[in-house]
Amino acid sequence: MQKTEALYTYKIITKEQTALIEQAADCLARSFIGVDVSGKWVQEPMVGQLNLRYDDFYQFTKDYLDSTVEQGYCAVALDHDHHVVGVLAGDTNAPEIIGEDVFEGSFYDMNVILRVLEDVDKRFMEDFKERNGKELEDGELLHLFMLGVTAEYNRHDIIQQLGNKLITKASSQGLKAILAEATNAKSIRVMEKYHNMKKYKDVEGNEIVHKYEENARLKDIPSDIADGTYILIKEL
User: Cross-referenced Gene3D superfamilies, in alphabetical order (predicted)?
Assistant: First the structure.
């Protein structure tokens, strides 16, 4: 089989590359809504459970990329035709806890996911403050927010290459750690295997997790697919 480097090229995109931003948003949206990979349906469990629409999710990912891409932490994998087939997008902002519904209309159920993320983020930031005696500030951590791969081949290699690119940059810029909210078992395994990320434990030794079985809207997600959203971390 061809080496991944021969199949794909990798780059960090800039604010001026509007066509690549649009392709990246499409890749992320399709990955979260669901893609067929060699006859197997792959999608993000919460998005699948809530039946969110592509159009809404595309606009959400596009807005996120437009607001954060200038920070330099959106890496893409390009195939031979220069099409985006993999994206890992992050930012160096401290997580923001809004505490109320922000999505409306056909995208209203995205608020369910927002509350899950805010739950684990809030607990992480409280633990961070207890450990460090101060609030988490912008520019301290790289927050890996969205990962999407639509390529049919070498998917794990793409994830490894994209992660390596962003983690190397974060380390070179003096960031303290890499943080991610992992929403399913597969993403946890991949980030543990390829990037040595670990489930974060608070000062009392407890994992920070939002269990789906305790969420009325998400309790029907099969536990073998995903049992909750966990905070993962990698110290730099």
Answer: 3.40.630.30
